[in-house]
Amino acid sequence: MKIKLAVLSGDGIGPEIVAQALNVTKAVCKKFGHDLSYKEALVGACAIDAVGVPYPAETHALCMDSDAVLFGAIGTPEYDNNPSAKIRPEQGLLAMRKQLGLYANIRPITTFPSLLHKSPLRQDLVEGSDFICIRELTGGIYFGRPQGRSEDGETAYDTCVYTVEEIERIIRLAYSYAQKRRHKLTVVDKANVLCTSRLWRQVAQRIEKEFPDVETEYLFVDNAAMQLIQCPKRFDVMVTENMFGDILTDEASVITGSLGMLPSASIGIHTSVFEPIHGSYPQAAGKDIANPLATILSAALMFEYAFGLIEEGLTIRRAVNASLKEKIVTEDIAGDGKSYKTSEAGKWIEDYCSGQ
Ligand code: IPM
Ligand code: MG
């Protein structure tokens, strides 16, 4: 199969972790006889520095022209600590999601037997947890207008907006995932307070009738946040709006034991994007210590979701599992044991993929 990738490494540890995911991707393509080509482009703070905007038109054109996008992370402390910056790296990520029409962010949460002890939660609570969080990605308070400050600067406002159409497509997608899994869907909202959430619930309750084979439950987001760590095994597919999904998935990462483990797929109208859920971890940039697994697992999702290449994805998953078992891991999960560099852990996985 011909595979044409856009590689957007971004800022901070982005280039280091994407390099490993790309090497693994190359190894898997070689092994299975796929014809891989790729081009790199700028996004985030590095794009602002180079050309003045965080998601340049050339980057968008490359994404549109590619079969999938492999994405690292964006953000630097200079911007994080400067709330009055007019242009922000995050705007690049949001512009990319919006312009590519990536309305669904799929974040699978699974545990790894060899990492169970790393979770701050009790082992018997997290063992066997396996659910998918589907986060709406192009609507809600992230994109709603108006947004800004009053003239005197004393008041600021954001607006949460959702249309029936936006809710419907993500709810339907969530049902299709539930049908392929354990037939349970949890719709998370704040319908006791927010108008947008009441619309979510109304639309979901209408669509629910079309899927009698799926058990649907509705949870308020505060309750969901509690249950997520109190009893993660009760979830199968969870669907929620943009900001709730952002927050709940960082919370869910503690189940896995490290934020450095969770991959994601953003899908929608144009080219799909595969990215770790963690940020750019600027303190670690250039030190070759960041955990590359979330990005490598995002490459596995890419083979599966973007190309339907299940065996290729599995090859990567087996290699990642083997690296965990053999403890070829970066310092965030090594604990008191020996830790490996980003590049060493990546190379081990790459070689394991080639050798399988
Ligand atoms: C994520 C990140 C982004 C988000 C930031 C970097 C804008 O936290 O992908 O979860 O909030 O969506
Ligand atoms: Mg986030």
Question: Would you give an account of this structure?
Answer:
- It contains 14 helices and twelve strands.
- Strands 2-1-3-12-11-4-5-10-8-9 form a ten-stranded mixed β-sheet, sandwiched between helices. The protein has a two-stranded antiparallel ribbon with strand order 6-7.
- The mean pLDDT is 96.
- It has 356 residues and is α/β, with parallel strands linked by helices.
- The chain has two domains: 1-100 and 282-356, Isopropylmalate Dehydrogenase; 120-256, Isopropylmalate Dehydrogenase (3-Layer(aba) Sandwich), CATH 3.40.718.
- The site of magnesium ion has 2 residues, from helix 10.
Name some characteristics of this structure.
356 residues; alpha/beta; Isopropylmalate Dehydrogenase; 2 domains; two-stranded antiparallel ribbon; 14 helices; 44% helix; 18% strand; binds 3-isopropylmalic acid; binds magnesium ion
Brief description of this entry?
This protein has 356 residues and is α/β, with parallel strands linked by helices.
Layout of helices and strands, plus pairs?
Elements: E1 2-10, H1 14-32, E2 35-40, H2 45-51, H3 57-64, E3 68-73, H4 77-80, H5 89-99, E4 104-110, H6 123-126, E5 130-136, E6 148-149, E7 156-157, H7 164-180, E8 184-189, H8 195-208, E9 215-220, H9 221-230, E10 237-240, H10 242-256, E11 263-267, E12 273-276, H11 293-307, H12 310-325, H13 331-334, H14 342-355
Parallel strand pairs: 1-2, 1-3, 3-12, 5-10, 8-9, 8-10
Antiparallel strand pairs: 4-5, 4-11, 6-7, 11-12
This protein binds 3-isopropylmalic acid and magnesium ion (MG).
Residues 75, 90, 93, 246, 277, 279 line the site of 3-isopropylmalic acid.
